[in-house]
């Protein structure tokens, strides 16, 4: 039976979470006035992404030229060979030695993920999912777990408004102020691992951190130079728009680079970019979430009326408030999972084991939702934890 409707009634995050949780195989068609995107799932994982209305600049050949991986002449020659032989562009470029098979696949992966994350900026459109067999493709991307895409999408919701305050024009160029420090060696420390379980930010990850130098910052710093504006850095760093802009902001905050004058004082010419379109919409959402969450926190502190043990999940009917509160609760559950792993040597099969171990109360596995958090153990040290499908 087909699943279909409008994105106003059932958002892209809910759709991906539903397909991922039920491990469906089939094709999801998404369309709005300007674009049409098809996502192919296999056992709940994203196996292929196709944009029917992809602009010329987003075609894989144009991406390779802008990234300075191949030249315009090499692309023209490959396209001519493709027309004569009907071979795939990737096969032609690899056989000619213009690019390695591994590098081409990584660029295909980048193209797919950028297409998916732009879907989170859609505020209107239609969707239709058809359960049907999905064939294996030699040029297919490495399968993406729907849960991972959701977590990355939620991270962008949180961080784009911060990024766009300084990285808000594609024409901005940068100049270096000082060299980066040498990378520090990672050492395994039991005490540090225990501390990380309760830390607000993971020390071994750069996600959600705006004050550290990681691999992304080093990659972007190496590409900063005269005449290279934000758009050019996004193209040649091959990290994606969000990661590149976040790395630029980190480098500015740490005073390794500074913005130099941008060409012209007008607005950017590409209004469909994630910086303007996604950042503007998600910025308003995050501001509302923060304000509502702050109000709820103050009320809880003054009246003592809100508690994990006594407040039913239905008290919070505003989705933004629920999302805001849920982030803190996810941190609490993650900390309990890490303690469980340190004590038992592996993660639990189900969240209920945290209650049995005395680490959490039953209501803490649902607060502020009616249903329990979605949890899946992937390996001894890896797991997926998401809010329940609402």
UniProtKB/TrEMBL annotation:
<protein>
    <submittedName>
        <fullName>Response regulator</fullName>
    </submittedName>
</protein>
<dbReference type="InterPro" id="IPR037257">
    <property type="entry name" value="T2SS_E_N_sf"/>
</dbReference>
<dbReference type="Pfam" id="PF14332">
    <property type="entry name" value="DUF4388"/>
</dbReference>
<feature type="domain" description="PatA-like N-terminal">
    <location>
        <begin position="4"/>
        <end position="160"/>
    </location>
</feature>
<dbReference type="InterPro" id="IPR025497">
    <property type="entry name" value="PatA-like_N"/>
</dbReference>
<dbReference type="InterPro" id="IPR045584">
    <property type="entry name" value="Pilin-like"/>
</dbReference>
């Amino acid at each position: 039976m087909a699943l279909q409707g409008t994105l106003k009634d059932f958002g892209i995050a809910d759709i991906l979470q539903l397909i991922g949780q039920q491990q469906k195989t089939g094709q999801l068609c998404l369309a709005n006035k300007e674009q049409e995107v098809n996502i192919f799932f296999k056992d709940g994982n994203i196996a292929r992404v196709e944009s029917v209305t992809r602009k010329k600049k987003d075609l894989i050949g144009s991406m390779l030229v802008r990234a300075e991986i191949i030249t315009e002449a090499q692309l023209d020659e490959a396209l001519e060979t493709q027309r004569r032989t009907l071979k795939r562009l990737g096969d032609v470029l690899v056989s000619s030695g213009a690019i390695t098979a591994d590098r081409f696949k990584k660029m295909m992966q980048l193209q797919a993920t950028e297409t998916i994350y732009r879907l989170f900026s859609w505020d209107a459109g239609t969707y239709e999912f058809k359960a049907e067999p999905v064939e294996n493709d030699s040029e297919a991307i490495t399968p993406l777990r729907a849960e991972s895409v959701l977590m990355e999408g939620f991270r962008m919701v949180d961080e784009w408004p911060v990024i766009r305050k300084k990285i808000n024009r594609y024409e901005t160029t940068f100049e270096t102020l000082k060299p980066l420090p040498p990378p520090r060696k990672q050492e395994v420390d039991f005490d540090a691992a225990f501390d990380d379980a309760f830390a607000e930010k993971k020390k071994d990850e750069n996600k959600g951190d705006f004050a550290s130098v990681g691999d992304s910052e080093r990659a972007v710093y190496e590409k900063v130079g005269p005449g290279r504006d934000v758009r050019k850095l996004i193209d040649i760093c091959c990290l994606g728009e969000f990661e590149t802009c976040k790395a630029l902001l980190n480098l500015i905050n740490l005073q390794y680079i500074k913005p130099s004058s941008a060409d012209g004082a007008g607005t950017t010419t590409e209004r469909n970019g994630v910086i303007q379109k996604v950042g503007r919409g998600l910025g308003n959402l995050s501001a509302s979430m923060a304000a509502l969450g702050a109000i709820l926190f103050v009320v809880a502190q003054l009246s003592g009326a809100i508690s994990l043990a006594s407040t039913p999940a239905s008290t919070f009917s505003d989705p933004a408030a629920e999302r805001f509160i849920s982030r803190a609760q996810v941190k609490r559950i993650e900390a309990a999972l890490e303690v469980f792993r340190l004590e038992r040597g592996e993660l639990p099969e189900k969240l209920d084991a945290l209650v049995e171990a005395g680490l959490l109360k039953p209501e803490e596995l649902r607060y502020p939702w009616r249903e329990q958090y979605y949890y899946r153990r992937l390996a001894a040290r890896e797991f997926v934890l998401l809010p329940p499908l609402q």
